[in-house]
Amino acid sequence: MNRILKMTLWAGVATILLSAGVIAAYLRFTMGLGATTNLSDTFPWGLWIGFDFLGVGIAAAGFTIVASVHLFHLHRFEPIVRPAILTAFVGYLLVILVLVIDLGRPEHFWHPLVMWNPHSVMFEITWCVICYTTVLSIEFLPVVLEKFRITTPMKILRIISTPLMIFGVIFSTLHQSSFGSLYLIVPGRLHELWYSPLLPVLFFISCIAAGLSMIIFESYLIERKTKRPLPHDVLSTLGKVVAVALAVYLVVRVQDMAGRGVFGDAFVWSYQSGFFLAEVAIGFLLPMILLMITPVRESRRGLFLCSILVILGFATNRMNTAITGMEKWPNQTYFPSFLEILIVLGIATLGFVAFYTISTYFPIFGTEEQHHAAKKSNPSLLWLDEIKSVSQP
Amino acid sequence: MTSVKGMLIDLTMCIGCNQCQDACKKTNGLADGEEKQLSASAYTALSEYNGVYVRRMCQHCLEPTCVSVCPVGAFTKTAAGPVLYDENKCIGCRYCMQACPFQVPRYEWGSTHPRVQKCKFCESRLRVGQQPACAEICPSGATKFGDRDDLLKEAYARFAAEPGKYVNRVYGLEEVGGTSILYISGIPFENLGFNTKLQKAPMSLLTWNALEKVPSVFTVGGVLLYGIWWITNRRKELAQEAEQQGKERQ
What we know:
By secondary structure, chain A is mainly α.
């Protein structure tokens, strides 16, 4: 009974956040960006752009795991393929939603497809978003087909799968790094603690750590509800890969900063250096050290906590690049409006609900056969069954 | 080839009468009223620094950053000089506002169909042989319209005619690859709110360094990924065959 109460509580919170988000989005479209956001001529990009970076970043497991399993044949990661593809698919759809809300003229979203400007990073990004979302929807298709036991299109999918996955990996690699490239054109405006000619490289390395951490994080969340955990040794290995990615990231970042002679600035107290130190120490250095300790990696709780640290550090890094680094404290600052925050919360909630619902009803964690076998042996495994069984005493 | 037009703004001559803004607003049909900063309804604005008036407006760069960053090519640099914006193409990503080294483009934040707004260098007037409204009205001669090359010569002639009156610098000569609008001043530019640390090369080179690698990522990345797939797949097949033979032997 206690579990049902808890479930109702979460469902209630989700409903409130979703409704608030819908109302906020309605206001944004009827009243315009000026009345509903704190964006301005001096600060044209804000929280929403940061959220886009975040959403695409945590979707990164989609391409790393697909490449590892299907292109490099590392089959021990097989159980993570579907959760990774679903995470990426949901992540990208959310980002598209935020983009539609953020763009001044969302009805012109398709323009980059016909009006080309290959000199623009934004042009590259639009193409990557559209192409990789298409690839993801095809990569996700087998799950739907398996669920409804449709087999014919699978043959076609099998033929195109290898080139399709290669395209997917290339598009997402370009997309992840191009977010960093966006800021190459604002030297002098983006604070030198974040501005670097290596921004695309740094964005790419950090997304690998964040994407894999997201898989660890989700796996434990899902496990508590469905009792279909991913093998712990696989997650533990992911932890190792995350540690290596963080280490490579820190080496490249510190070396780059030292090379440009700005590393010392990090230790001169300022508005920006405070955010920088918090980001690097808590979100990159600490989880890297923790994940290098075997007992931490082998404990479920340790691994879970580290994944949260990495995701938070990654989020801080992207928000710092998008907001803190662009601020001129204390004269030119930006803090998102209440409606901007509501929209982000609503969309994040939508993501969690979508991921949770799809992974409950579709064969994401385990195949359809395992799904059914589990259901037969214990009917209370799915929460809907659970509610039914409680309501019929 | 038509020569690139420009304007020479001599800050020592500006009297702060604001007639340039009035004429600009009238010509472009913008909302009346004096504005001290650039906005969606002020393509040019005067700011005062201890009695010196600085008129801000789009610099009409020779290699504009906005033209390079716009994903749909809504900005174009015309041969005559003006940098123009096409609202029918614009998707509203605001990358131009983020990237402009002079922070010129403004947005119609109050509208539900917002446009980017900035000086058009009176392109329609230029086409019929007239000069921009602001240059035409300027009573003190602080704004002078002409061919960019001629205006540069004029600037150096003024430096030579009155030694010591000006700081020896034409702002806009080499900033981010040069701009159509040129400034000369009696006070160092850094004291007048100008960004004097801009690079001499066009800003677009910074992103082009990354973008030019995209085709190689496709070709090298594609071949590399396919190669790894091929090798590991063959290895898997061989392992399966070996397993099969082992079973048959038993």
